[in-house]
Amino acid sequence: MEPNNPVSQIPIQIKLEKFTIKQFVQEQMPEDIQPNEQINFNHAIGIRVVPENEAIETHLDIKILRASNTQNLGALVTQGVFKIGPEAFQKFKELGGIPRELFILAINLTYSTTRGIMIERFRGTPLQNAYLPIVNPDELLQKIEERLVVKQQ
Q1: Which of 49, 84, 131, 134 is deepest in the core (most CB within 10 A)?
Q2: How many domains does the chain have?
Q3: What is the pLDDT of residues 23-77, one digit of tens each?
Q4: Is-contact 64 74, C-beta < 8 A?
Q5: What is the pTM of this model?
């Protein structure tokens, strides 16, 4: 945020209020799967403002696929709720909306927390070396924004 931007003058209060694993499925592993076999992850992320709770809510849906034949190996769905302080939420509302940086923060925390959950859940399984790739949360938000523009047209 730019120093002369009125949004940058608002003391931001944001906290992770709740993080939930909505779904975790690990399919029966094929007998021929190799420990270092390439695994693909298809992910979809959503984000929305929940005005009545003064919060940002994120939703991350991950499909885990075998790269060699796109066989489904599992899925993980997580949800994060990020509470914004009431004063800051009201000021953002008056200034036209929540700053983009807070959406990026919420996406980043959701994605990295989900990545950690996957590392913990896959430990000791054939998927223990499969890591959700590190991504730029700004690029994820841009994809969400592009989908919104397409829907509005």
Answers
A1: 84
A2: 1
A3: 999 988 888 888 788 999 999 999 999 999 999 999 999 999 999 888 999 999 9
A4: yes
A5: 0.84
